[in-house]
Design a protein that fits this description.
single chain; alpha+beta; 32% helix; 15% strand
Length: 65
């Protein structure tokens, strides 16, 4: 069972997205996969986020546009 995470960031961007992902992984250290359902916001496709996902158990699932 995965534990939920709630964050309140002043803005949503690549940095806050990376902080959310890191927090999700820290709270759920035994998870083999964490699926994130997300919209097509550009920060999900940023180089920083894509680089992070290469070594993460997080997988993004994009909603249809």
């Amino acid at each position: 069972r995965l534990e939920p995470v709630v964050r309140f960031d002043p803005t949503i961007d690549s940095d806050s997205t990376l902080a959310l992902f890191a927090q999700l992984e820290a709270v759920n250290p035994n998870a083999t996969v964490i699926y994130i359902i997300c919209d097509n916001a550009p920060y999900y496709r940023s180089r920083a986020v894509q680089d992070y996902l290469k070594t993460s158990c997080i997988q993004l699932v994009f909603l249809p546009s």
